[in-house]
Amino acid sequence: MSQPTGAQPMDVQHLLAIDAAHAWHPYTSTIDRDPVYPVRGASGCEIELMDGRRLVDGMSSWWCAIHGYNHPVLNAAATEQLGRMAHVMFGGLTHAPAVGLVERLVRLTPAPLQHVFLCDSGSVSVEVAMKMALQYHQAAGRRERVRFLTVRSGYHGDTFDAMSVCDPVTGMHSLFERVLPKQVFAAAPAPPFGGPCADADIAELAGLMQRHEHELAAVILEPIVQGAGGMRFYAADYLARVRRLCDRHGLLLILDEIATGFGRTGRLFACEHADVAPDIMTLGKALTGGYVTSAATLATAEVADTISRGTGAFMHGPTFMGNPLACAIANASIDLLLSRDWQGEVAAIEAGLQKGLLPCRDLPGVADVRVLGAIGVVEMTAPVPMRAVQRHFVERGVWVRPFGRLIYLMPPYIINSTQLELLCTATRDIVAELGSGRIAAT
Question: Is 291 a known active-site residue?
Answer without folding.
Answer: no
